[in-house]
Amino acid sequence: MITNTCRQAAALLSRSREESLGVFERVSLYVHLMVCPNCRIYSRQLHWIDQALAEAYRKTPVVLSVEARLRIAQALSQPGRGEPCDSE
After folding, report:
1. What is the pLDDT of residue 10?
2. For 54-74, what is each residue's pLDDT tens digit?
3. Distances from the Cα of 73 to the Cαs of 4, 65, 70, 76, 84, in angstroms?
4. Distances (CA, A) of 68 to 18, 45, 59, 81
5. What does the pLDDT read at residue 82?
6. How many whole angstroms separate alpha carbon 77 and alpha carbon 88?
7. Contact 21, 15 (CB under 8 A)
8. CB atoms within 10 A of CB 53
9. Sequence-separated (6 or more) residues with CB below 8 Å from residue 48
10. How far apart are CA 40 and CA 13, in angstroms?
11. How far apart are CA 36 and CA 6, in angstroms?
12. Residue 5 has what DSSP assignment?
């Protein structure tokens, strides 16, 4: 897929946050970013969001109370919890 639309570039930028893109996808995205200032801005914004979230997570560790941990454990131990539902 040659990235010739901003929608395709945005999809690749989002995917690249979670997984490695193939060589062709990376080159295609690179070429698109060279010619599209709006997608370059969007790419920088995604990067800033990633940095802000990482910084916030480092500053605020997630700590659950004992009661919350027990409620979660009880909810997960109930039959049928966490299993996908059948829609057929």
Report:
1. 94
2. 888 777 777 888 999 999 999
3. 48, 12, 5, 5, 18
4. 29, 35, 21, 17
5. 54
6. 25
7. yes
8. 10
9. none
10. 10
11. 8
12. S
**25 neighbors 52 (Cβ within 8 angstroms):** no
- For residue 56, report the phi and psi dihedrals to the nearest 5 degrees: -65, -40
To which residue do tokens 């700590």 refer?
63
Locate 37 and state its tokens: 């200032």
Cβ atoms < 10 Å from Cβ of 32:
21
* SS3 of residue 2 by DSSP: coil
Q: What are the structure tokens assigned to 13, written together? A: 């930028």
Q: How far apart are CA 42 and CA 16, in angstroms?
A: 13
pLDDT score for 13:
95
| Residue ranges in the chain modelled with pLDDT below 50 | 87-88
